[in-house]
Amino acid sequence: MPQYLLLSVGCDPLLMGTRTGLLVEAGYSVVPSFTSRDAFQMFISRDIDLVIICHTIPEEEKNKLIASMKERNKRTPIVSIHADGEADGELVDAYVHGLDGPVALLSCIAELLDKSIGSRIAN
Predict the structure, then answer these.
(1) C-alpha distance from residue 60 to each of 11, 25, 64, 65, 85 (Å)
(2) CB 3.0 to 4.6 Å from 104: which of 9, 15, 26, 100, for a disulfide?
(3) Do residues 79 and 53 make contact, with C-beta atoms less than 8 angstroms apart?
(4) What is the pTM of this model?
(5) Nearest CA-CA partner of 51 in 18, 26, 75
(6) Residue 83 is part of a domain; what is its CATH number?
(7) Closest CA to 63 of 43, 44, 90, 96
(8) In degrees rounded to 5, what are phi and psi of residue 91?
(9) Residue 91 near residue 103, CB atoms below 8 Å
(10) pLDDT (tens digit, 9 = 90+) per residue, 58-110?
C-alpha cells in the first residue's frame, strides 16, 4: 500500500489520539490539527491525500473550512465524521456517523483514496 498522508481535524484530544492511532495502525501517515486555521495551513503547504473532519469542530467553522479547502483543491477527498442531526454530505465527499466505528471509517477512507488516486492517474 502506498503511504498516504491524511489530515485529521478535530477539537477533542482523546478522540484525535484514538483516531490517529487507528489510522497509523492501518498504515496511513497522519497529521493531526486541533484548529481550522492550522488545518488549512497544513492543507495548502503539504501534499495531503485525504482530510478527515471530526464532529467536534463547530458546524459553521467546519463548513467554512470545507469550502476553503474545496476552493483550493477540489480533488482532495474530505470525510466528515458527524453526529446526529448533521447533514453536510453535500459539502464533503463522504460522511461517516461517529457511532459507525473504525471499520466504517477505514472502509470509507480506502474507497475514497482508490477513487481519488484513480482519477488523478486518468487526468
Answers:
(1) 14, 32, 6, 9, 14
(2) 100
(3) yes
(4) 0.90
(5) 75
(6) 3.40.50.2300
(7) 90
(8) -90, -25
(9) no
(10) 989 999 999 999 999 999 999 999 876 555 556 889 989 888 889 999 999 99
